[in-house]
């Protein structure tokens, strides 16, 4: 009995709730109809009737929460996706650095300039590609083969870094994280090259740009391109009349109104042509770059470079060209100690991977607070060249040759030595002018003249001793046959064949050094120094040959002094004269002692016998940082010596 009663009671309750809902809906619809039909005060009276059903509806929802809902549920509106404004620039080809402002203007004329595009953060790769294609119609030619790049902070031309896409390609959220709304994203083609021909001003690429009217040709021009258009439009000759059908000028004169008065023009400081005053800065920048482009080597072929190398009048002219080839965009840093500077310098030179010897050399001596403004670099190069001469070369006053060492060849030490020699020549260090003539002939030609090699060109002490023994031998038993065969001689060994045996030893002493000289030449290719040497063989001889050594002597050092004396007849002038005379005597005494030591050293150079011996060169190095006569001009050395003299005068006054 309980179950049927419950079912009846539940049915009755549901019928009551249905009736109440029906009455509530009818009353609300009547009230809404009255509110639509009424105006003014009647509409204000309809408001309480609408809210009168609220308590009943609320009570029913509390009594029967499972069967009676408290009015309609309103869903929260989904917030719209965020948009990020990003700046893009479509490049015409693959580049390593950002384009120059003048190049950007060329891209803008071709419809590839900067664009600001709203990118939804929820967009995927295809949506981003569609947005970019709408802004750049030429992107359709790329067929999807493009990547985005960005540049790091700074000014001028900067290196472009790849913006790596996600697994599904570029997304709006990924681009927002990559650039953060700052900077510019560069669209770089992967395998295409887009045309940079200027588009007509009516092209679709310029439809969103603001336009302005050119007063010369009355043409509507995009505002970003108006300055360049005015420059070219003002140069063209305006038509002063109309032509009839036969092509004859009818002589109709065009009068300018007061608003079309001619603009003020200024002379360009570069090309000296008349340009509008408001665009003279833009014209000067592009004009200068056009001159630089015309002065380049064209396709960069070696033949064109060689043609520009030829025709130097002296070593000064040649050194100016070499100095211009130093890449100053970054530095080639070397950190060494003064102890064992040659071995440590070679090791650190080979380990440097972040830059190239083509860049500006900067040297730091560990444990010293000095900052390299040029003097430390020259001192390092001076010590390195002198140390390399002692460690890797052998010979006497007539010149030196590389020591035969397969170990150093396998370690590529001679290639590093060639790079050090090239940097020393170009960046203010001493030239390696201690080579024998036949060595320089090989460097300047790439070939060995076997007929020009003589016994005097042999620098190896063991081979020179072997030649002397062969010359002095009176019997075959005295000759060391094993050593003769090791030199490559395959003929009969007899006293009558002395000359042929000696010739074999001489050729063996020189030919075995050819791989070493070839490796050294591979280091001289930086700055295109090797090509310069082979094109200007006679002028460059003083850079390598011992016969034209540029050693500092007392006469050069004294002539380079430019003291500024006090007035004549004063006590200061007398004291300053005594200081200069004492300095001259001291320099000449050093030279005399060095000459005596050279004569006692049996033909060896003074610095090769005693590293601690003070001579004129080392005194000049202590004073200026370099122990050689500067290549080209000695004005820099003269300035340093003048400052040293001033300090000496001040010290003497104290």
Quick take:
This protein is an alpha+beta fold. It has 26 helices and 13 strands. The protein is 48% helix and 10% strand.
Topology overview:
Blueprint: H1 2-37, H2 41-52, H3 54-63, E1 83-90, H4 101-109, E2 114-120, H5 125-135, E3 146-151, E4 160-162, H6 172-179, E5 184-189, E6 211-213, E7 220-222, H7 226-235, E8 265-267, E9 274-276, H8 280-294, H9 302-309, H10 315-323, E10 327-336, H11 341-351, E11 359-365, H12 375-392, E12 393-396, E13 399-402, H13 406-410, H14 413-426, H15 437-445, H16 461-472, H17 481-486, H18 498-511, H19 514-523, H20 529-535, H21 537-544, H22 554-560, H23 571-600, H24 606-609, H25 616-624, H26 635-653
Parallel strand pairs: 1-5, 10-11
Antiparallel strand pairs: 1-2, 3-4, 3-5, 6-7, 8-9, 12-13
Helix pairs in contact: 1-2, 12-14, 14-19, 16-18, 20-21, 22-23, 23-26
């Amino acid at each position: 009995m309980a179950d049927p009663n419950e079912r009846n009671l539940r049915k009755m309750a549901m019928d009551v709730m249905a009736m109440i809902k029906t009455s509530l809906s009818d009353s609300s619809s009547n009230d809404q109809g009255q509110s639509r039909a009424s105006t003014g005060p009647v509409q204000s009276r309809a408001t309480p009737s609408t809210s009168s059903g609220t308590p009943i509806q609320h009570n029913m929802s509390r009594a029967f929460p499972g069967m009676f809902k408290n009015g309609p549920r309103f869903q929260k509106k989904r917030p719209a996706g965020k948009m990020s404004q990003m700046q893009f620039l479509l490049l015409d080809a693959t580049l390593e650095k950002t384009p120059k402002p003048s190049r950007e203007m060329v891209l803008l004329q071709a419809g590839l300039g900067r664009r600001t595009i709203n990118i939804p953060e929820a967009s995927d790769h295809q949506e981003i590609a569609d947005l970019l294609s709408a802004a750049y119609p030429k992107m359709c030619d790329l067929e999807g083969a493009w990547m985005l790049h960005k540049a790091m902070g700074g000014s001028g031309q900067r290196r472009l870094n790849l913006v790596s896409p996600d697994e599904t390609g570029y997304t709006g959220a990924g681009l927002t994280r990559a650039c953060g709304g700052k900077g510019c994203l560069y669209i770089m083609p992967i395998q295409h090259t887009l045309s940079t021909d200027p588009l007509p001003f009516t092209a679709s690429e310029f439809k969103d740009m603001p336009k302005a009217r050119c007063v010369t040709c009355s043409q509507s021009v995009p505002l970003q391109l108006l300055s360049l258009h005015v420059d070219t439009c003002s140069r063209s000759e305006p038509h002063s009349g109309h032509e009839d059908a036969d092509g004859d000028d009818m002589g109709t004169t065009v009068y300018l109104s007061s608003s079309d008065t001619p603009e003020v023009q200024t002379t360009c400081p570069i090309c000296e042509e008349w340009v509008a005053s408001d665009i003279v800065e833009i014209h000067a920048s592009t004009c200068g770059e056009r001159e630089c482009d015309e002065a380049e080597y064209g396709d960069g072929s070696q033949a064109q470079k060689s043609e520009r190398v030829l025709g130097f009048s002296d070593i000064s002219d040649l050194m100016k060209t070499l100095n211009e080839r130093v890449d100053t965009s970054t530095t080639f840093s070397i950190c060494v100690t003064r102890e064992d500077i040659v071995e440590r310098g070679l090791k650190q030179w080979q380990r440097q991977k972040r830059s190239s010897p083509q860049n500006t050399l900067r040297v730091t001596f560990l444990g010293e607070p000095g900052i390299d403004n040029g003097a430390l670099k020259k001192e390092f190069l001076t010590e390195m060249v002198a140390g390399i001469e002692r460690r890797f070369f052998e010979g006497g006053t007539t010149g030196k040759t590389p020591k035969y060492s397969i170990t150093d060849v396998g370690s590529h030490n001679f290639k590093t030595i060639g790079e050090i020699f090239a940097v020393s020549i170009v960046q203010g260090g001493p030239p390696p002018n201690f080579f024998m003539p036949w060595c320089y002939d090989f460097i300047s030609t790439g070939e060995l003249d076997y007929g020009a090699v003589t016994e005097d060109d042999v620098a190896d002490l063991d081979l020179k001793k072997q030649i002397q023994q062969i010359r002095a031998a009176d019997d075959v038993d005295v000759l060391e046959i094993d050593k003769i065969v090791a030199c490559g001689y395959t003929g009969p060994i007899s006293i009558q064949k002395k000359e042929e045996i000696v010739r074999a030893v001489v050729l063996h002493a020189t030919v075995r050094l050819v791989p070493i000289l070839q490796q050294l030449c591979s280091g001289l290719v930086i700055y295109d120094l090797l090509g310069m040497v082979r094109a200007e063989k006679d002028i460059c001889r003083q850079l390598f040959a011992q016969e034209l050594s540029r050693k500092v002597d007392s006469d050069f050092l004294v002539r380079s002094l430019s003291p500024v004396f006090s007035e004549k007849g004063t006590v200061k002038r007398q004291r300053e004269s005594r200081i200069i005379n004492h300095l001259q005597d001291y320099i000449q005494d050093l030279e005399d002692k060095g000459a005596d030591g050279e004569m006692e050293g049996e033909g060896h150079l003074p610095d090769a016998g005693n590293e601690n011996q003070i001579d004129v060169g080392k005194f000049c190095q202590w004073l200026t940082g370099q122990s050689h006569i500067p290549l080209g001009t000695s004005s820099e050395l003269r300035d340093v010596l003048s400052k040293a003299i001033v300090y000496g005068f001040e010290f003497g006054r104290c």
